[in-house]
Amino acid sequence: MDRISLRENLEKYRTPFEEEASFVQDFIDLTYDDLAFSRERLQGHFTASAWIVNKRRTHSLMALHRKLNKWLQLGGHADGHENLMQVALAEAQEESGLTSLRLVDSRIFDIDRHTIPERGNVPEHFHYDVRFLIEAEMNEPLVISEESRDLAWISFDAVEDFVGPNQSILRMLEKTSKSEILL
């Protein structure tokens, strides 16, 4: 999935969630920017994430992010790579140590534009996060990377207790429970 296929996928992307629908065009517009996949674009850039679930769709793997001190899905910067599906899979493996990761569907699962606070010489900016649904085995050992303070398989019933009012994660949780892409 390069920049052109990403744009095509975004143009076809439909969501019943009003907030998510409100920034689809911003994602499409960003695909025309030469720096869209690079941190050098200081006002905002693409990132990719993995919403990792177990096969029974009862738990999600989440990380306690080291810098933001929040429970989040795994993922990271594109760093020049236009294939965000591959970025999401690579980040998921790097941040968890899991080898059983399996892409459930090549279509975009979710998108979110969120603000990243200023840190050092990097100004406050947007992450245009493209997310993919990925399955993994819960019994495989986890390896905590430098990106995280902790990793945990969190029961769907407890996700909100961990993430609070984080609407983008609650939206992915809702999509998972309603997903036609089941077992």
From TrEMBL:
Cross-referenced PROSITE patterns: NUDIX (PS51462)
Pfam family, one: NUDIX
Cited InterPro entries: NUDIX_hydrolase-like_dom_sf, NUDIX_hydrolase_dom
Domain of life: Bacteria
Domain Nudix hydrolase as annotated: residue spans: 43-176
Official protein name in the record: ADP-ribose pyrophosphatase YjhB, NUDIX family
